[in-house]
Amino acid sequence: MVAALIKQLRIPADFRLHREDGRYVLSGHLPDSNLRASVINTVTGSRPGREVDATGLSASDFVDVAPFTSGSALPNFLRSYCSVAEPGDFSIATGSGPVLTGAATRELEGQWLSLLRPLSGTFKVEAHLSIRPSQYHMPGYQPTSEVPAELLARLQENLRNRLITFTDSSMEISPEDASMLSALSADLFAAGPALHLIVGSHPGSEKPEDTAKALSRAEMVQRRLVELGIPTENLHAEVFDALPLNGSGGAETGVSYTNSVELLVR
């Protein structure tokens, strides 16, 4: 009778991380105080200065053990998930699979899904991720170029959604885009040697031939900027990930990235 009563008093394990008023709120029930401490330390230590409220996260012997509460699988996932500047929401509970939202690159998406495998058991991972072309497109990305804040803000605004576009087979910069680069060059040159630019090319697809074409386009724009007076060593050509079909990384801002080159402050 006592055993049956104790069983009735047991609580299913659950965990949730969500953002609220600029802080990250942790809530749920875990079966182990060491796991609770590890989770809190992981989320808090993933980004300096991040405010974390864990008052709603409890640990008790009356909480049932679940696959996601065993070992270090949950802290391992959170260490990666919370390493980005602005993680989304994450939740998991006994009897259901993990649910996560937010923005991710292709690399992060693969990393997170792999880390979630030990947590999910037989349940499916429910991922609602906005796939971004690169780390530079992630929410909260902070450039490392040591440019004065006011100038940096002006540069970022001038560069925002200013794409050098190509038709599917084109390898030439259009006269309109050449004029745009000329107009931008004054501000870029004025920023001095502290400014580093990513000359990032968005391929038409994941096919190797489209990736090679995208790199050639990035290098072409890079050469044009050098002709305009921007030092070669301050320009970094690369190919971004191709967004999935109907991917939301660009659609959220009404931008179509396909077959274009974009300048971003590194």
Describe the structure concisely.
By secondary structure, the chain is of the alpha/beta class. It has helices spanning 2-9, 33-45, 73-81, 106-120, 149-159, 175-190, 208-227, 248-251, and strands spanning 14-20, 23-30, 52-59, 90-93, 99-104, 126-131, 163-165, 197-202, 235-239, 260-265.
Write up what this structure looks like:
- By secondary structure, this protein is an alpha/beta fold.
- It folds into 2 domains: 2-131, hypothetical protein tt1634, CATH 3.40.1520; 141-265, 60s Ribosomal Protein L30, Chain: A.
- The chain has 8 helices and 10 strands.
- The chain has helices at 2-9, 33-45, 73-81, 106-120, 149-159, 175-190, 208-227, 248-251; strands at residues 14-20, 23-30, 52-59, 90-93, 99-104, 126-131, 163-165, 197-202, 235-239, 260-265.
- The strands form 2 sheets. A 6-stranded mixed β-sheet has the order 3-2-1-4-5-6, with helices on one face.
- The longest helix is centred in the last third of the chain and has 20 residues, at 208-227.
- It is elongated, with a radius of gyration of 23 Å.
- The chain starts with a helix and ends with a strand.
- The model has no long low-confidence stretch (mean pLDDT 90).
Topology summary:
Elements: H1 2-9, E1 14-20, E2 23-30, H2 33-45, E3 52-59, H3 73-81, E4 90-93, E5 99-104, H4 106-120, E6 126-131, H5 149-159, E7 163-165, H6 175-190, E8 197-202, H7 208-227, E9 235-239, H8 248-251, E10 260-265
